[in-house]
Amino acid sequence: MREIKFRAWYRGKMYRFVEHHSHPDGSSGVNCLGVDMAHMFSPGDEVELMQYTGLKDRSGKEMYEGDILQGKGVNWECCWSNTYAKFIVVTPNTYIIGRYAMLIKNLQWASERLEIIGNIYENQELVKAQ
Fold this sequence. Notes:
The structure is a single chain. The protein is mainly β. It has one domain: YopX-like domains (SH3 type barrels, Roll). The protein is built from one helix and twelve strands. The termini are far apart. Mean pLDDT is 77; it is low at 95-99.
Protein backbone atom coordinates (compact mmCIF):
# COMPACT_ATOMS: atom_id res chain seq x y z
CA MET A 1 0.00 0.00 0.00
CA ARG A 2 1.31 3.46 -0.85
CA GLU A 3 2.04 6.08 1.74
CA ILE A 4 -0.58 8.87 1.88
CA LYS A 5 1.01 12.29 2.29
CA PHE A 6 0.65 15.81 1.00
CA ARG A 7 2.51 19.06 0.52
CA ALA A 8 0.98 22.54 0.61
CA TRP A 9 1.49 25.72 -1.43
CA TYR A 10 0.77 28.67 0.87
CA ARG A 11 1.62 32.35 0.49
CA GLY A 12 4.27 31.74 -2.14
CA LYS A 13 6.07 28.86 -0.39
CA MET A 14 5.90 25.06 -0.51
CA TYR A 15 5.50 23.20 2.80
CA ARG A 16 5.39 19.57 3.81
CA PHE A 17 1.94 18.73 5.14
CA VAL A 18 2.01 17.37 8.69
CA GLU A 19 -1.50 16.85 9.99
CA HIS A 20 -5.16 17.67 9.58
CA HIS A 21 -7.29 18.97 12.45
CA SER A 22 -11.06 18.80 12.90
CA HIS A 23 -12.55 21.14 15.45
CA PRO A 24 -15.71 20.78 17.55
CA ASP A 25 -17.31 23.69 15.67
CA GLY A 26 -17.06 21.71 12.39
CA SER A 27 -14.17 23.71 10.94
CA SER A 28 -10.85 22.13 10.03
CA GLY A 29 -7.27 23.12 9.29
CA VAL A 30 -3.84 21.69 8.57
CA ASN A 31 -0.38 22.16 10.05
CA CYS A 32 2.71 22.15 7.87
CA LEU A 33 6.41 21.97 8.60
CA GLY A 34 8.12 25.29 8.15
CA VAL A 35 5.11 27.18 9.45
CA ASP A 36 4.78 28.12 13.11
CA MET A 37 2.99 25.04 14.43
CA ALA A 38 0.65 27.29 16.44
CA HIS A 39 -0.66 28.57 13.11
CA MET A 40 -3.23 26.39 11.46
CA PHE A 41 -4.50 26.98 7.98
CA SER A 42 -8.22 27.47 8.08
CA PRO A 43 -10.94 27.15 5.42
CA GLY A 44 -10.62 30.84 4.43
CA ASP A 45 -6.90 30.54 3.68
CA GLU A 46 -5.83 29.93 0.11
CA VAL A 47 -3.87 26.71 0.53
CA GLU A 48 -3.27 24.31 -2.35
CA LEU A 49 -2.73 20.72 -1.20
CA MET A 50 -0.94 18.30 -3.50
CA GLN A 51 -1.04 14.56 -2.91
CA TYR A 52 1.97 12.24 -3.15
CA THR A 53 1.49 9.80 -6.02
CA GLY A 54 3.29 6.90 -4.37
CA LEU A 55 5.98 6.86 -7.07
CA LYS A 56 9.38 8.47 -7.56
CA ASP A 57 10.96 9.91 -10.69
CA ARG A 58 13.94 8.23 -12.34
CA SER A 59 16.34 10.02 -9.97
CA GLY A 60 14.44 8.90 -6.84
CA LYS A 61 12.58 12.13 -6.03
CA GLU A 62 8.97 11.74 -4.76
CA MET A 63 6.33 12.69 -7.34
CA TYR A 64 3.41 14.91 -6.24
CA GLU A 65 0.42 16.37 -8.05
CA GLY A 66 1.52 19.56 -9.77
CA ASP A 67 5.08 18.42 -10.43
CA ILE A 68 6.60 19.21 -13.81
CA LEU A 69 8.70 16.40 -15.23
CA GLN A 70 10.96 16.38 -18.25
CA GLY A 71 12.32 13.78 -20.63
CA LYS A 72 13.88 14.19 -24.07
CA GLY A 73 13.12 17.91 -24.07
CA VAL A 74 9.38 17.51 -23.41
CA ASN A 75 7.74 18.78 -20.23
CA TRP A 76 4.93 16.83 -18.56
CA GLU A 77 2.59 17.80 -15.71
CA CYS A 78 1.59 15.28 -13.05
CA CYS A 79 -2.12 15.56 -12.26
CA TRP A 80 -5.14 13.60 -11.07
CA SER A 81 -7.55 12.44 -13.77
CA ASN A 82 -11.20 12.02 -12.78
CA THR A 83 -11.79 10.38 -16.17
CA TYR A 84 -9.23 7.62 -15.53
CA ALA A 85 -9.47 7.74 -11.69
CA LYS A 86 -5.69 7.80 -11.32
CA PHE A 87 -2.65 10.05 -11.45
CA ILE A 88 -1.35 10.68 -14.97
CA VAL A 89 1.16 12.94 -16.70
CA VAL A 90 0.08 15.19 -19.56
CA THR A 91 1.91 17.45 -21.98
CA PRO A 92 0.95 21.09 -22.40
CA ASN A 93 -1.44 21.61 -25.31
CA THR A 94 0.26 21.01 -28.63
CA TYR A 95 -1.11 22.49 -31.86
CA ILE A 96 -1.85 19.68 -34.32
CA ILE A 97 -3.69 20.25 -37.64
CA GLY A 98 -5.95 23.04 -36.44
CA ARG A 99 -6.89 21.37 -33.14
CA TYR A 100 -5.38 21.14 -29.70
CA ALA A 101 -4.31 17.71 -28.56
CA MET A 102 -2.87 16.52 -25.29
CA LEU A 103 -0.60 13.53 -24.85
CA ILE A 104 -1.42 11.41 -21.79
CA LYS A 105 0.80 8.78 -20.16
CA ASN A 106 0.46 6.72 -17.01
CA LEU A 107 2.55 7.47 -13.97
CA GLN A 108 4.55 4.23 -14.04
CA TRP A 109 5.79 5.16 -17.52
CA ALA A 110 6.75 8.62 -16.21
CA SER A 111 8.55 7.33 -13.12
CA GLU A 112 10.86 5.22 -15.27
CA ARG A 113 11.65 7.88 -17.91
CA LEU A 114 11.20 11.40 -16.53
CA GLU A 115 12.80 13.68 -13.93
CA ILE A 116 11.10 16.36 -11.83
CA ILE A 117 12.28 19.83 -12.86
CA GLY A 118 9.81 21.96 -10.88
CA ASN A 119 6.13 22.38 -10.08
CA ILE A 120 3.17 24.38 -11.38
CA TYR A 121 3.33 26.94 -8.57
CA GLU A 122 7.03 27.81 -8.44
CA ASN A 123 7.82 27.27 -12.13
CA GLN A 124 4.79 28.39 -14.15
CA GLU A 125 6.95 29.08 -17.19
CA LEU A 126 7.55 25.32 -17.54
CA VAL A 127 3.88 24.55 -18.21
CA LYS A 128 3.41 26.89 -21.17
CA ALA A 129 2.83 25.20 -24.53
CA GLN A 130 6.07 24.08 -26.12
